[in-house]
Write a sequence for this structure.
């Protein structure tokens, strides 16, 4: 059964899930943040089949989340590097990690803790208003807006 595309929805969450919404994709991105660059690195670290990894890496390249570069050692294999778009997924992974820490581990279980380089734990992520005030979901609303140059063109064409 083919998955429904959400690439044309007005919901940014739907579009994001359309591009990165399966677990293998986010795990591949996680491994890239932890230094994986070569196909073999991803394959071994994730214990993922070659065909699934190939498909996911091609999708990540097509989405411009990764870019392929020649090997730093000059070998025949290529390396996969996160683009600016890909590095912006760091916040998403931290949010998922913190949600998982808060809700998916029982007392006495072990997990990998994300800390800064001095060994201190991270603050919990939160949504902030433009002036820095913490917001909860009821404090927000969704409005439809036109992005970029199209917004300027739309507002100038409606001016009379």
């Amino acid at each position: 059964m083919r998955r429904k595309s959400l690439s044309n929805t007005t919901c940014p969450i739907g579009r994001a899930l359309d591009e990165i919404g399966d677990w293998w994709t986010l795990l591949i991105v996680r491994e890239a943040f932890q230094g994986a660059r070569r196909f073999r690195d991803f394959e071994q670290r994730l214990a993922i089949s070659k065909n699934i990894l190939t498909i996911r890496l091609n999708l990540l390249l097509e989405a411009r989340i990764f870019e392929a570069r020649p090997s730093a050692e000059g070998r025949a294999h290529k390396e996969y590097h996160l683009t600016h778009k890909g590095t912006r997924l760091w916040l998403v992974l931290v949010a998922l990690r913190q949600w998982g820490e808060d809700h998916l581990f029982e007392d006495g279980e072990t997990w990998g803790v994300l800390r800064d380089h001095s060994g201190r734990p991270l603050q919990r992520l939160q949504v902030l208003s433009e002036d820095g005030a913490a917001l909860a979901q009821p404090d927000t609303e969704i409005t439809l807006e036109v992005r970029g140059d199209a917004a300027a063109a739309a507002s100038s064409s409606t001016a009379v």
Remarks:
- The domain at 12-87 is CATH 1.10.10.10 (Arc Repressor Mutant, subunit A).
- The first strand starts at residue 66 and ends at 70.
- Confidence is low (pLDDT under 50) at residues 156-160.
- The helical segments are 12-20, 23-33, 39-46, 50-62, 84-87, 90-103, 148-158.
